[in-house]
């Protein structure tokens, strides 16, 4: 139904449209008692809403009778419906009750009730709108009056756009109207109930809405009134009708009014929503609120405010009673400057209030004084202990459960959460609503005033509910909370407050990198009246958490920057002497509260200090950890700051983009020393949040480099204490550190003083206001004079400005160091001069300070101008011109370079998974930009710590390379590298020749070169004192060439050196090579070979691409043709672009000596085609280069039609060297031979050395086809398979065959004549060796040890041990190593010594007997121990593992003393014979090994061995 005129429907009125339950209704009840008397007729349909968290507990029944407030239902209830009162402080009560609403009306607008109506969800709808009369142009607008009308089965699901909203009732484009929808009902809808668009002054009152798919009532108009309406059971479209749509991110609301302008919300109730209760935009803070007595329960979010809203400066959320919302009672995340949450009651919500603001972006260094105020609000954790059972999750909570609100560690509820101030919106609804996904905003405060917190006292089985808490997962920053008049009722002290620990999981390369982030360790509660902590003061967390504890958190003394523990002399400062305490500074009144995980500091005045790097590389260059040391000394505290985590969308080591903004806590009246691990930012901004004017701290910022550091307060320049404001000159003082040092007693904002020698900038911070420190790039020039008079009695300052062509205002004397100090300093310098300076004057050259931060001054010197000035300084000193210009002798100079402005090296491109590249975390040798920057900074700091770069005057130039000799190709870089040095008057090599911005230049030249011969790349600068000719080359061919080197810049110096020796050059050689060749691929006949073939000109001398110089500026012609066989005919046709030209190079850096043939094609179909490429140049007709690409398979078959793939290995009996220079053509010939002979498809054939080893890949349709090919190959190999090449040469296969690496046939073996002769020689040598051994052991009778009795391990049965096979001799004893193996297979190694009175030479056998099965009677003696009897377990076998050599007879049978000499003589003779026998044996073994190796080599050449294993991949 649509109307553009009048629509007025008036049904029978009822006094009450809906009412809360007066008493709970149990499941199974058939009647309910209401809070109000009703006049509902019998048979009327009513809805009973949920009284808990589950919207699906909504039920519909019919009235059978009414008895006052009691209603008799037509059926029992399936669910319990809650009705209870919560008692608030002061005795006020609020009813937590389900609602009962009347659905039936006597006027009904109803959709068709057919079988599939629910499935199709296509119902009735009413549209009231306006139009213009086409003839008159008069606007016709509908007038709507609806009262007591029922909409049933209405709306059309899925049509929700504002330009075509197919809701039950839509008022669209009515403009200013008086439309009313009063006491209507919307019963089981397939869409929202009411939509108001581009219409004003509409009233929707007293209506009951039951079951909408999507939102309930939508208002996008202006000044509309929504009063006393009940919306029950909003269904989420993503799960409607059994759907499962994880990508459905709609978050509809029962009352969606966030786009409405000045809506009136009074007395409305949401009772069950699978998404939001009220989606609002807030009201104006500076006008009376038009919202009151609104209620939401059974939703995920009770009140929700997200994204852009109408009130950008200040928005108010008030007049809500929210209970049993599963995620958040009130949630907001908006860009407004201020949000006020006032006059609300929040009961039994998982998280009562989650306040979040976003914008502006801290990366743009924007900030606002963002505020969140929560006032006059009651927060109740549990209404009563009896209600704990109601804490059950709704079914919809399991859908995308990852976005649920966080609970406490014990699964409890949270009252108020630290306000979150972020750069951008969170990632909701795709991501969670609560996890920050952008950097913290610079500033933000949360104020609690008049808040009442009730029943946070572990009423539900000890579950911990926390009244006030930091946000779990908010690891980057927790901005201050400032409280007053906070009251607690039924709240244990332990559960008043909680501060989370850092999340260990965030310590990884993609987030916080290598240590905890700062947020949870630097939260701050400022309790102005003591209503939370007991007395006015602060609560601060354990910033020292896991300091030198669990190393995974990355926090400890080892992270303190070296500069903080190093004296000026280089001595180490013990930590205990400077910073024995850890964490935020705490006085004696700070008490650790373990339940709070924080310190309660009575009288504490800690405040948040935000340290903001304003540099362009703030997100790229890491400067942390920062050590913030309070009151350095025996009672000092050290606090380590890491900064926020990486918020980039990429992984691992390639990201690490982290803004350098740090949130710290400081206490007034303290001196804070600050050290950066990296080079400090050039521009720092400090925000001393919530500090009163009398809260003063002094910052000591350490800088490794002497520059000028300008301080600004609220954008205005603050003159340093030691600078004359009238002249900008530095005031000289004998005790500057005492005279100019600011203290905490200072009352001047930004008072500052820079200790030049120590590197500390002292700055006073007082609240409120912003302090900025800007590093001004200046040249620090130190000049040494012989006497003080040389400087003071000569107009050096003006003469120096004239010499350097700068304004006198850009040059000032920074320091004068006299006599003693200079001498002491110069002892530490590496260089000594005969006339040592006794007075050192330090100058600053640079722009004068700007008057404010928005001005760059009028006489600024750019970096280019500063570097040009430096070059003038160095050149004038090293050439001697400075002395003449100044009229005084300058003995030496040192110079500290100006620091160039910080830049973003990425150009603003941030890492993503696409731009971040490969994850290289943990890869050895791979460093991040931050690490490389840190190394560079360290090198610079080391130079600066030495006072800058020292410059000498050069006396001579030295050649540091050996003379060149021999021959080398022209147009090739001369090698070895040629290096030249400058020496000073003392003969020392100088480390600086000229300034790096304008270094001295050396030019090389040939001495009397032949005609047509010249040098290329003949100039080189001095870098770090060395001039290196790394690209010097000769153009032309000649001999007797010699080199001379001369300084040509600056022009007015005379330094030259000639290299001894001479060398010659030969004509340059080039080669042609195919790169990226798509050979071995299949191509259809007529199809372009893709990808194209890249053909390169390369330099074999360097192994790389030919340089532009090597190509001499020639034009080059590349031609492609099919490779011709030995008959001189190509086997097919090559079509396409076969001729390409390469123009002469115009610049070497961009020149690529290559072309790509990208549209070649071969026809007809065939196997193993080769393409030949030829290179010529008209500039040199004698030059002609060729190369080959391929093979190419041109087939209509696709590889997928031949799924069976195998590898086959063959070998040709031929010398590989005969085909080594044509491997590719020969491989193609072999491929075509095999392809023509067998049915398998030989798709990839290659050859390698080892005779000629052939490796081939075959493809077949089936395994049977492959087996048939293998069988044929075997048969052919048996018949000595031979291939006749195109040139007529026959190549016989040797019979070897491998299939997939397995040997399927071996070649026939023949023993060549040389092998037979070698074997005979070997046998003769072995026979002679055997005779020597027999003579040594048989012909010389003696008692001794058995040589090598047995080395074979074997097992024998018990009682049947044979004697070991040994060389016969006169032997009395021997040892047998054996293992007795018991039935459990346990091995007991032992040595059995066998002895006899008679020699054992005639012993044929012997038996070891056992007394019984378990106790053998053996003498068992382990090596080194005396023989001793031993019992063994019942053995199963006796294992002889080795036989030892017995050292003579046993001790009991030693020969008499008189026989000692004779025995010794025999043993000596025996040892000699044994040694000779051993040498003979070793010689024979060596000759045998040489013979074997020679046989192997010969066999490989003549194919007489079996084929080696081949890699057929």
What is the mean pLDDT? 84
| Percent range of helical residues | 10-25%
Q: Uncertain regions: pLDDT < 50 for 5+ in a row?
A: 822-835, 913-922, 1339-1392, 1396-1467, 1498-1513
Any idea what the radius of gyration is?
48 Å
How many helices? The count is 13
- β-strand percent reads 25-35%
Number of strands: 109
Distance between the termini: 76 Å
Main beta sheet strand tally, sense and closure: 14 strands, parallel
Secondary-structure-derived class: mainly beta
Give the overall shape, derived from the CA principal axes.
Answer: globular
Question: What would you note in describing this structure?
Answer:
- There is one protein chain.
- With 1513 residues, this protein is mainly beta.
- It is 12% helix and 34% strand.
- The protein is built from 13 helices and 109 strands.
- Strands 1, 12, 17, 20, 23, 26, 29, 33, 36, 39, 42, 43, 46 and 49 form a 14-stranded parallel β-sheet that branches. A twelve-stranded parallel β-sheet has the order 11-16-19-22-25-28-32-35-38-41-45-48, with no helix packed on it.
- A hairpin with a 5-residue loop joins strand 105 (1373-1381) and strand 106.
- Helix 12 runs antiparallel to helix 13.
- The longest helix is centred in the last third of the chain and has 43 residues, at 1460-1502.
- The radius of gyration is 48 Å and the shape is globular.
- The model is unreliable at 822-835, 913-922, 1339-1392, 1396-1467 and 1498-1513 (pLDDT under 50).
């Amino acid at each position: 139904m649509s109307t553009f005129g009048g629509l007025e429907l008036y049904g029978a009125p009822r006094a009450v449209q809906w009412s809360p339950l007066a008493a709970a209704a149990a499941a199974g009840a058939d009647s309910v008692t209401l809070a109000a008397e009703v006049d509902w007729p019998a048979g009327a349909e009513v809805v009973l809403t949920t009284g808990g968290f589950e919207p699906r507990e909504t039920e519909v029944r019919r009235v059978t009778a009414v008895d006052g407030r009691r209603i008799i239902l037509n059926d029992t209830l399936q669910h319990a419906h809650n009705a209870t009162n919560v008692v608030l402080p002061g005795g006020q009560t609020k009813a937590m009750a389900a609602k009962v609403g009347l659905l039936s009306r006597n006027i009904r607008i109803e959709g068709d009730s057919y079988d599939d109506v629910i499935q199709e969800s296509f119902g009735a709808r009413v549209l009231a709108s306006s139009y213009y009369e086409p003839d008159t142009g008069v606007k016709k607008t509908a007038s709507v009056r609806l009262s007591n009308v029922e909409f049933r089965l209405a709306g059309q699901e899925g049509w929700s756009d504002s330009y075509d909203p197919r809701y039950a009732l839509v008022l669209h484009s009515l403009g200013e109207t008086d439309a009313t929808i009063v006491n209507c009902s919307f019963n089981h809808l397939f869409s929202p109930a009411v939509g108001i668009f581009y219409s004003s002054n509409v009233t929707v009152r007293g209506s009951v809405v039951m079951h909408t798919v999507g939102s309930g009532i939508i208002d996008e108009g202006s000044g509309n009134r929504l009063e006393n309406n009940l919306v029950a059971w909003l269904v989420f479209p993503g799960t409607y009708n059994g759907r499962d749509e994880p990508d459905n991110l709609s978050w509809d609301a029962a009352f969606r009014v966030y786009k409405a302008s000045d809506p009136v919300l009074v007395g409305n109730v949401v009772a069950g929503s699978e998404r939001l209760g009220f989606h609002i935009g807030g009201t104006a803070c500076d006008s009376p609120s038009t919202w009151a007595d609104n209620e939401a329960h059974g939703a995920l979010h009770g009140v929700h405010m997200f994204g852009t809203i109408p009130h950008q400066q200040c928005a108010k959320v008030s007049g809500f009673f929210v209970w049993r919302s599963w995620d958040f009672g009130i949630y907001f995340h908006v860009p407004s400057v201020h949000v006020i949450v006032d006059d609300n009651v929040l009961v039994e919500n998982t998280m009562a209030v989650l306040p979040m603001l976003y914008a502006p972006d801290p990366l743009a260094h924007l900030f606002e004084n963002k505020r969140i105020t929560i006032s006059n609000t009651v927060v109740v954790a549990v209404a009563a202990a009896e209600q704990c059972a109601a804490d059950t999750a709704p079914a919809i909570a399991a859908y995308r459960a990852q976005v649920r609100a966080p609970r406490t560690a014990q699964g409890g509820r949270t009252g108020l959460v630290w306000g979150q101030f972020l750069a951008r919106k969170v990632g909701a609804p795709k991501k969670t609503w609560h996890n920050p996904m952008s950097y913290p905003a610079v500033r933000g405060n949360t104020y609690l005033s008049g808040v009442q917190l009730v029943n946070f006292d572990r009423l539900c089985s000890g579950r911990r509910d926390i009244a006030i808490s930091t946000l779990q997962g908010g690891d980057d920053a927790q901005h201050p909370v400032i409280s007053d008049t906070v009251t607690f009722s039924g709240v244990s002290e332990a559960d008043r407050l909680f501060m989370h620990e850092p999340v260990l999981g965030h310590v990884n390369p993609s987030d916080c990198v290598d240590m905890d982030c700062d947020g949870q360790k630097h939260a701050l509660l400022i309790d102005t009246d003591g209503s939370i902590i007991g007395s006015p003061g602060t609560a601060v967390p354990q910033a020292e958490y896991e300091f030198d504890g669990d190393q995974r958190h990355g926090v400890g003394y080892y992270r303190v920057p070296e500069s903080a523990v190093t004296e000026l002399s280089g001595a180490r400062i013990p930590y205990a002497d400077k910073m024995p305490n850890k964490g935020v500074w705490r006085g004696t009144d700070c008490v650790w509260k373990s339940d709070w995980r924080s310190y309660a500091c009575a009288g504490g005045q800690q405040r948040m200090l935000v340290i903001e790097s304003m540099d362009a590389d703030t997100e790229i260059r890491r400067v942390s950890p920062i050590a913030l040391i309070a009151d350095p000394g025996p009672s000092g505290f050290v606090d380590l700051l890491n900064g926020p985590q990486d918020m980039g969308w990429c992984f691992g080591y390639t990201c690490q983009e982290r803004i350098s903004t740090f949130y710290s806590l400081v206490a007034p009246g303290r001196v804070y020393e600050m050290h950066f691990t990296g080079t400090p930012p050039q521009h720092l901004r400090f925000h001393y949040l919530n500090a009163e004017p009398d809260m003063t701290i002094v910052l000591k910022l350490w800088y490794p480099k002497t520059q000028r550091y300008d301080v600004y307060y609220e954008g205005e320049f603050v003159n340093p204490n030691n600078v004359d404001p009238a002249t900008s000159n530095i005031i000289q003082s004998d005790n500057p550190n005492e005279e100019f040092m600011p203290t905490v007693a200072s009352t001047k904002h930004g008072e500052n003083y820079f200790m030049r020698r120590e590197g500390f900038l002292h700055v006073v911070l007082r609240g409120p206001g912003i302090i900025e420190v800007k590093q001004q790039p200046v040249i620090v020039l130190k000049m040494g004079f012989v006497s003080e008079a040389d400087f003071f009695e000569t107009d050096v300052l003006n003469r120096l400005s004239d010499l350097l062509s700068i304004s006198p205002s850009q040059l000032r004397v920074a320091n004068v160091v006299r006599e003693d100090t200079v001498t002491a300093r110069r002892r530490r310098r590496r260089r000594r001069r005969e006339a040592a300076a006794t007075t050192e004057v330090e100058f600053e050259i640079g722009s004068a300070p700007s008057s404010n931060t928005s001005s760059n001054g009028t006489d600024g010197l750019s970096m280019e101008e500063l570097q040009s000035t430096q070059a003038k300084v160095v050149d004038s000193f090293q050439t001697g011109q400075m002395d003449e210009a100044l009229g005084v002798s300058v003995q030496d100079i040192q110079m500290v370079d100006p620091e160039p402005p910080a830049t973003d090296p990425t150009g603003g491109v941030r890492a993503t998974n696409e731009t971040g590249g490969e994850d290289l975390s943990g890869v050895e040798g791979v460093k991040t930009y931050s690490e490389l920057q840190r190394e560079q900074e360290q090198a610079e700091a080391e130079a600066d710590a030495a006072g800058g770069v020292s410059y000498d005057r050069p006396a001579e130039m030295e050649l540091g390379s050996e003379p060149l000799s021999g021959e080398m190709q022209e147009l090739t870089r001369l090698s070895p590298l040629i290096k030249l040095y400058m020496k000073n008057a003392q003969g020392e090599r100088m480390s600086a020749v000229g300034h790096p911005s304008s270094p001295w230049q050396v030019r090389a030249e040939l001495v009397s070169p032949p005609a047509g011969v010249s040098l290329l790349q003949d100039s080189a600068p001095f870098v770090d004192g060395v001039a290196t000719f790394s690209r010097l080359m000769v153009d032309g061919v000649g001999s007797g060439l010699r080199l001379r080197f001369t300084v040509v810049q600056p022009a007015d110096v005379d330094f030259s050196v000639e290299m001894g020796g001479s060398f010659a050059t030969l004509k340059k050689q080039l080669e042609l090579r195919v790169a990226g060749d798509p050979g071995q691929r299949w191509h259809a006949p007529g199809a372009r070979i893709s990808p194209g073939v890249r053909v390169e000109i390369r330099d074999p001398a360097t192994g790389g691409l030919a340089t532009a110089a090597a190509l001499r500026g020639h034009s080059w012609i590349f031609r492609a043709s099919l490779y011709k066989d030995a008959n001189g005919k190509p086997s097919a046709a090559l079509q396409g672009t076969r001729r390409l030209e390469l123009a002469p190079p115009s610049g070497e850096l961009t020149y690529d000596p290559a072309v790509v043939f990208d549209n070649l094609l071969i026809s007809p179909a065939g196997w193993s085609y080769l393409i030949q490429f030829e290179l010529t140049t008209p500039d040199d007709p004698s030059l002609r280069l060729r190369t080959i690409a391929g093979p190419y398979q041109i087939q209509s078959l696709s590889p997928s039609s031949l799924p069976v793939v195998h590898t086959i290995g063959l070998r040709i009996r031929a010398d590989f060297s005969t085909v080594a220079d044509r491997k590719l053509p020969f491989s193609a010939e072999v491929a075509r031979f095999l392809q023509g002979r067998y049915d398998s498809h030989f798709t990839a054939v290659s050859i390698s050395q080892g005779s000629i080893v052939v490796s081939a890949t075959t493809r077949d349709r089936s395994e049977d086809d492959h087996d048939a090919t293998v069988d044929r190959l075997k048969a052919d190999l048996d018949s000595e398979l031979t291939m006749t090449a195109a040139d007529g040469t026959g190549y016989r296969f040797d019979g070897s065959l491998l299939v997939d690496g397995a040997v399927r046939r071996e070649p026939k073996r023949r023993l060549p004549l040389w092998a037979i002769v070698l074997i005979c020689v070997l046998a003769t040598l072995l026979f002679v060796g055997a005779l020597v051994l027999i003579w040594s052991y048989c012909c010389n009778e003696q008692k001794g040890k058995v040589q090598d009795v047995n080395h074979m391990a074997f097992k024998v049965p018990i009682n049947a041990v044979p004697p070991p096979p040994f060389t016969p001799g006169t032997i009395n004893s021997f040892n047998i190593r054996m293992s007795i193996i018991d039935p459990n297979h346990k091995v007991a190694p032992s040595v059995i010594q066998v002895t006899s009175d008679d020699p054992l030479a005639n012993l044929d056998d012997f038996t070891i007997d056992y007394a019984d099965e378990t106790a053998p009677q053996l003498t068992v003696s382990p090596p080194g121990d005396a023989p001793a009897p031993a019992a063994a377990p019942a053995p199963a076998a006796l294992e002889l593992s080795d036989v030892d050599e017995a050292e003579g007879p046993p001790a009991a049978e030693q020969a008499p003393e008189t026989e000692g000499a004779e025995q010794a003589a025999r043993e000596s003779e025996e040892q000699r014979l044994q040694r000779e026998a051993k040498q003979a044996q070793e010689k024979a073994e060596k000759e045998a090994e040489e013979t074997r190796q020679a046989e192997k080599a010969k066999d490989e050449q003549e194919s007489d061995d079996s084929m080696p294993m081949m890699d057929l991949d």
